[in-house]
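Morning!

This is the sequence you dropped in the shared folder:
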Amino acid sequence: MTKHDDDDDDRPRFMPLGDIGTIFLAGVFLLGMLYMMFGPSPFAGIHWKTAEPKEQRGVVDVTVPPKE
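The structure's back. Tokens below.
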């Protein structure tokens, strides 16, 4: 066995590309989930619309008779 045959064992092992792709895809989904949870809501204008004040049709006075 020569020094040349032993060089392959000294190199660090690289991660397979399939594993790197899976980790990258999981990171993309994590960022998307965080954006959906904490990002701006596209439905904010629909559900939380402030109610416009209704027109006042007139003032009505209500009186309560005195207690006997």
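Headline: The CA atoms of residues 27 and 43 lie 26 Å apart.

More detail when I'm at my desk.
O.
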